[in-house]
Amino acid sequence: MALRLEPIDEYMHELGPEANFNESMYFNLYDPIHGVGGWFRCGNRANEGYAEMTVCIYLPGGRVAFMYKRPEISSNDAFDAGGIRFDVVTPFERLDVRYTGKVVVLDDPLQMANPKRAFSENPYAECEVRIEYTGASAMFGGEPETSHEKPGEEFAKGHYEQLIAGRGTIRVGDEEWEVAGHGLRDHSWGPRYWQAPWYYRWLTANFGADFGFMGSRIARREGAGTRGGFVWEDGQLHVCDNLEIATEWTDGDRYHRAIRATLRSGEREWKVTGKVLDLIPLRNRRRDPEGNQLVTRISEGMTEWSLDDGRTGYGLSEYLDQLVDGQPVGLAE
Question: Which DSSP string corresponds to 317-330?
């Protein structure tokens, strides 16, 4: 499948006619010295009149500082809403993330399974984030020359990712850290419903500047879905044609707590295991055309990864599942 990706794609795209047109950027980072990490997202849904902004910071001791808002927007001119701002300084090389505003501080991040209660029963703190990101790998992805999504299953017309290094400051209340670490970013545009996949698994990891990976498993309610990703090793990007995942789940609410995965690119393969250090569950709800309430859970796990050669890295494991009778549909994987 031929893909187009140019430096101009780092900037905002023309707003499409679709009611659910979304353009978003996402950045994550983990500093293993301080044990502080996080991710930051801004998604413009200008035809619906709002942006989705999220700040999620994993703090020492298992705490999470979190904020989600839907600030009003009227255009798709910039990622700048609700106190968060992303700036492209040099395409593919340097981008900056800024946030100034409040966060709710959760001693028990699992409380976010009930967001109304979590936001009303936990303390707030002033937060400031200033991070400069630089590219650490080649680019992966782009916009296909021909559409690859079925009507009703749209999730992104164009999408690309890159491993990155980040340096800056994170302040939550009276605590402040000078952070330096690695992570991953993505940029996507086009129609999006969070209910389009039946479930997906998105695994990101960095083992320093010379090795990292992204693994993606997208399952459709009907059909096989997709498996893939990439491995960045010694200055070379290996596009993966398969990803196998086995998950160990918690009892009760069934959150992922440990992962075994194998990424394959041609004859090469890389085996990794992941241990979730901290997890926060998020929720998206939408009514279908018949008026039925659809509930999607997105579990965000800060994860310690181990390669089969003994190296240790860090990143995020994001598990999206549609919930049926309160249970995630992807328990078999």
Answer: EEEEEEEETTEETT
Torsion, Cα 102 108 109 110, to 10 degrees, reads: -140
- Quickly count helices (H) and strands (E) in the chain: 1, 22
Pick from 104, 90, 84, 101: nearest CA to 43: 84
Q: Which among 206, 278, 260, 258 has a CA at the least distance from the CA of 30?
A: 206
CA distance 133 to 184: 10
Asked whether the beta carbons of 7 and 160 are under 8 A apart, the reply is no
pLDDT tens digits along 261-299: 999 999 999 999 999 999 999 999 988 778 888 999 999
**Strand (E) positions, 110-174?**
124-135, 140-144, 158-172
Q: What are the structural domains of the chain? A: 18-193 (2.40.370), 195-333 (2.40.370.10)
Which residues are paired to 133 by β-bridges?
Answer: 95, 166
Cα–Cα distance list, 94 to 97, 126, 137, 169 (Å): 10, 27, 12, 17
Stated as kind and residue range, the H or E segment containing 116 is helix 115-121
**Residue 281: what pLDDT?**
98
Residues sharing a CB contact under 8 Å with residue 189, sequence separation 6 or more, in sequence order = 13, 16, 21, 22, 23, 24, 156, 157, 158, 159
Q: How many residues are listed for the chain in this entry?
A: 333
How far apart are the C-alpha atoms of 175 and 321, rounded to whole Å?
A: 34
- 45: which 2 tokens? 């849904």
Distance between CA atoms of 14 and 23, rounded to whole angstroms?
10
Q: How far apart are CA 157 and CA 21, in angstroms?
A: 10
pLDDT tens per residue, range 206-246: 999 999 999 999 999 888 899 999 999 999 999 999 999 99
**Rounded-to-integer distance, Cα 106 and Cα 87, Å:** 29
What's the rounded mean pLDDT across residues 135-161?
80
